[in-house]
Amino acid sequence: MKTDVSKAGHDCRPLKRKSEVLASPVPLGASGKGLSYAPVDWPNVGDIWGWRVGTRVRAVGFYNDRFLYAPQRLQKKPTRKLLFQSKLSILRYLKSQFPEADIEAFFASFTWDVPAEAHSTKL
């Protein structure tokens, strides 16, 4: 079942750019909603995406495991969240559900690489 995209992005304010978003280090297994690590107001105003990180940290200090959750309005099954484990999986979803969306603007609206707290980089 496809999501109705007739209004996708049309009533949405312009997305923030990465340069306007502050990225603070987060602890292992942290999660949250919206900026800095997930988009807000996409595809429509009020749509807030969720994010979560795992426990593995790359040598450069960013989390290796990073997840993005679609907003509640886009969830097809209320008992199971629509979860994306990679940029590629999100890209495929966006292209299938929102074929006319500006994918570059979507990814530019939040920070994909989540920095780990200093003590976490010694894993």
Structure description:
By secondary structure, the chain is largely without helices or strands. It has one domain (18-112). 14% of the residues lie in helices and 11% in strands. The protein is built from two helices and four strands. It has helices spanning 87-97, 103-108; strands spanning 31-33, 50-53, 66-69, 83-84. It has a four-stranded antiparallel β-sheet with strand order 1-2-3-4. The model is unreliable at 1-15 (pLDDT under 50).
Spell out the key features of this protein.
4-stranded antiparallel β-sheet, little secondary structure, 123 residues, single chain
Contiguous low-pLDDT stretches (5 residues minimum) are 1-15
Overall geometry comes to globular
Order of helices and strands: EEEEHH
Mean pLDDT: 82
Number of strands: 4
The strand line-up of the biggest sheet is 1-2-3-4
Helix content: 10-25%
Major β-sheet annotation? 4 strands, antiparallel
Write down the oligomeric state: single chain
Q: So how many helices?
A: 2
Tell me the β content: 5-15%
Domain count: the total is 1
Radius of gyration: 15 Å
